Amino acid sequence: MIRIFFKLDWILITAIILLLILSLSVLYPISYGGETASKDRSNFFRQLIFAAIGIVVFFTLSFFDYRIIKGYSASLFVLGILLLAAVLILGKTIRGTVGWIGFPGFHLQPVELFKVILAIMLAKYLSVNSRTIKEFRHILITLIPVGLSTFLILKQPDLGSALVVVSIWLGLLIISGIKKRYLLILLVAGLAVSMIAWGFLLKDYQRDRINSLFNPSADPLGAGYNAIQSTVAVGSGGIWGKGLGHGSQSQLNFLPEKHTDFIFAVTAEEMGLGGVLFVLFLLSLIIIRLFGIAQKSQGNFGKLLVSGIAIMIFVQSVVNIGMNIGVVPITGIPLPLLSYGGSALITTLAALGIAQSVHRRSKTSFG
User: Fold this and answer.
1) pLDDT in tens, 191-238
2) Is residue 333 classed exposed, middle or buried when 0-12, 13-18 and 19+ CB atoms within 10 A define those classes?
3) How far apart are CA 112 and CA 83, in angstroms?
4) Closest to 43 (Cα-Cα) out of 211, 240, 258, 253
5) Which pick of 85, 97, 223, 364 has the fewest CB atoms within 10 Å?
6) Which tens digit of pLDDT belongs to each residue from 267-312?
C-alpha cells in the first residue's frame, strides 16, 4: 500500500493542494467582508465542500485504471452531447448564460464535464488511428463532434468554453502529427467561421465585450466596466498586496464576479505581485508535470488524454488571467482550482486524478 502512494506524483499533488488552500484563503474574506457579505456567506463553505468532494474524486481516480475509460468514450460523448442539449431546454440562466441545470442544493454545469469527455473521446480516436492520422479525413471526422458540441455551447452562449473545446481539438491534432499545410487550412477555415459567428452566433453583449477590449473607456459603465475595475484591482496590489480582506475593489464590491471570473484580480489586489507570481508558478508547475506525465505514458491513449487535460488547464488559465489584466475579452472562464464553482472544481480535480492514474502506470516515474 505504501508503494502505491509513493508512485503518485507528489509534486503535482502539492501544487494542487496549495492552490486549493489559496483559493479558500481568498474566498473567506470575500464571503465575510463587505456590504453584501450576508448573501455571500455560503460561498466559502460551499467551496470547502466542493474541494473535499473533489479531493476524494481525485484520489479515487488516481487508483483507477484509466484504460477502462477508453472503452466508454463513445457512450460518454453521447452523454455529454445530451447534457449540452438538455441545458438549452432545462437550463437556468445565470449572468446571461443558460449553462446550468438546477438540482436541489447545487447546479450542474455540463460544459465543464464535457471538456474532459472530449479529451477522452479524441484521445481514443486519435490513438486508434495513429498509423493513418496524417490523412486529412481524420480532421474532418473529428470536426463533426467538435463542431456539434461547439455549436451547442455557443447557443448557451458560452464563448470561452467553446474556445477551450476547439483548443483541445487543435492541440491534440498537432500532438498527433497533423501536417502543417492542414493546420494552415484549418486556420483559414477558422477565420471564416469566426466571421460568420460574429454576425450570426454571438450575442450583442459578447460583441460589446470584444470591442471594449480595444477601448474600454468608450463605455466605462457598461461593456468596459468589468475590464476597468479588474485592471484597477490588479494594478493597485503593488508588490505585497493590501492584505487578505483589505482589497478596496473587492470588499467595496466595485469588482464584479469576484468569486468566479475575477478571483485572480482579487488575489493580485490583496496579495500583490508576490501572490500573482505564486499562482503563476503553481499553475505552470501543474501544466509542466502533466506534459511530463504525457510523455512518459505507456500508450498513445494515455499520452493524448493527459495532453488534452493539460491543454484544457493551460487555455483556461491564459484566458482567465488575460481577461483579468485586460488583454483578452471577458468570456466567463473560471481560473482552474481557484475560482468558485463546484462543477469546474470537481471536474478539474477528476481530470487531474485521471492524469495521476496515467502516471502510476507510466514506463518510468520522475521526481
Assistant:
1) 887 777 666 666 666 666 666 555 555 555 555 566 677 777 777 777
2) buried
3) 11
4) 258
5) 364
6) 888 888 999 999 999 999 999 999 999 999 988 999 999 999 999 9
Q: What is the DSSP letter of 201?
A: T
C-alpha cell at position 198: 460574429
pTM of the shown model: 0.89
- The 8-class DSSP code of residue 242 comes to S
Query: Residue 22 corresponds to which cell in the numbers above?
Result: 489559496
Q: Which residues contact 340 (CB under 8 A, 6 or more apart)?
A: 23, 27, 43, 46, 47, 259, 260, 263, 334
Which residues, listed in sequence order, are joined to residue 100 by a DSSP beta bridge? 92
**Cβ atoms of residues 272 and 291 within 8 Å:** no
The separation between CA 192 and the C-alpha centre of its own chain, rounded to angstroms, equals 26
Q: Is the distance from CB of 312 to CB of 163 less than 8 angstroms? A: no
For the segment 76-94, the average pLDDT, to the nearest whole number, is 89
Host H or E run for residue 94: strand 92-94
